[in-house]
């Protein structure tokens, strides 16, 4: 352990940070949740689906026409993930964002131990005006963290070519209409195996639109990596 980590560990023991879920002290300076909350985090049964949520009937029900080959996510778009995602996206809470990135990269490290990695990562682009208003694109931030954690390239090849209405609250048909001709590919020299990163997948409309562009450019194996999956029963309000 280097000097900086020793100082951080000592400071954490003297003045421990509060857990971002239960507010009890966090002893280990590397984590933002206490051990009890980390152990209690809801998780998908990856040992049963070989790190592909599309094999789970409850997930398939909400994504009946997906055009990607594999889905990886932290959990359902329910508490506590829903709370942290909302805090990060709409209130620019840096601690919620840091926690989600930490848990996301931890999942990817587990994935890497038993599954082959894609050759590169891409992310869902945001309209420039909306990105300026929010101050960041959460999908890009996640992708940057994942690329650094896994040591694979991040490609900036997708662009949103028109501003669309927020997808939240729209049903499947409305989402499809809202996203029609909303994206374009600005680099067609792509490796055949990619992972697309977004914060939440609901009906899969956004991912499917981008999958069509990527497959037209020669991508043959496409994974979708997200923070959360919206249950099918909540699609009309997600």
Task: Please render the helix and strand layout as text.
Elements: H1 3-14, E1 17-18, E2 25-26, H2 35-40, H3 46-49, H4 57-62, E3 70-76, H5 81-91, H6 94-114, E4 120-123, H7 128-134, H8 138-150, E5 158-160, H9 172-179, E6 183-185, E7 193-201, H10 205-216, E8 221-229
Parallel strand pairs: 3-8, 4-7, 7-8
Antiparallel strand pairs: 1-2, 5-6
Helix pairs in contact: 5-6, 6-8
Helix tally? 10
Q: Report helical residue fraction.
A: 40-55%
Q: Name the shape in a single word.
A: globular
Taking all Cα atoms into account, the compactness measure Rg is 18 Å
Report the sheet with the most strands, covering strand number, pairing sense and barrel closure: 4 strands, parallel
CATH fold category name of the largest domain: Rossmann fold
- Which whole number gives the mean pLDDT? 88
Number of beta-strand segments: 8
Strand content: 15-25%
Along the chain, the helix and strand elements come as HEEHHHEHHEHHEHEEHE
Just name the CATH architecture of the largest domain: 3-Layer(aba) Sandwich
Distance between the termini: 44 Å
Strand order, main sheet: write it out. Answer: 3-8-7-4
The residue ranges in which pLDDT falls below 50 over 5 or more consecutive positions are: none
| Total domains | 2
Q: What class would the helix/strand composition place it in?
A: alpha/beta
